[in-house]
Specification:
It is a single chain. The N terminus is likely disordered. The protein is an alpha+beta fold. The chain contains six helices and twelve strands. The relative contact order is 0.20.
Amino acid sequence: MVSIIRGSTMKTKLILPIALLGLSAMQAASAACSSADVKALEAWDRAWGVASESGDMAALDKIYADDFMDLSMDAAGRDRAQTLAEIAADAAAARGKPATVKTVPDHYAIHCTANSAVITHRNTITGTGEDGKPWTEYRRSVHVLEKRKGAWQVVSNSGHPLGDMGQLYYMEMDWNLADLNNDAAWFEKNLAYDYSSVSSRTGALADKAADIADVRSPKRKLASVVLSNADVRVSGNAAVVTGINHVTGTDDKNQPMDRWVRFTDTFIKRDGRWQAWSTQGTPIADKK
């Protein structure tokens, strides 16, 4: 992905068919969920995270339902009392000490009705080990909520670490957002030093520097991106992601653009993290 669309030197794609409109982040909502509902539920979830990290037990007492159950693989079926006790103990142990671990939730997918909701998101957790070296862990969380007495409460929670396939799926999403936002810093960090791309428009070969230059001075403007048919294969420290990308916007001549491109992205794991190694796009001429 480099430049503005996989097809230029950069591409964009996602796990399931998901439209990214303008510069907004990816989120899925059912018909019963208005954009205001989705925004409010994301804010609710973020506030829950802040309360958990700070040990705000008064707020957490209202958030957790009486019949709450944690179904995470590493939670051993903790109930409400056990969960709150653990949060309180962790907060007490951390009090007065510099924060060494930071959790950032993103890539929200929210579905809701008037009285129930499911919130899914990724957590990127960073910290510093006893050896002084930084570390990063990725997890995915799924929260089930019900509205009781007019207020949302979490009735069930599940979470698990993301393996290589999950990390690569989310990396594709990050790539899309970076492309939409012309975020050159993301490409500086996540393109391998020996990265290369093949343009679906001209067949031209470009390297990391050329694609990042294209990001810094974009000649096209994306209006929407819909990704589908994504497939991830991993073998050791190498991986391939394929899929289809539907892009609309304006081209380098400021003319309307509506293109379908089948892409192949190759990744390599170096220094303990996945990096984009190459990308290539092929236009689908008869796609309507």
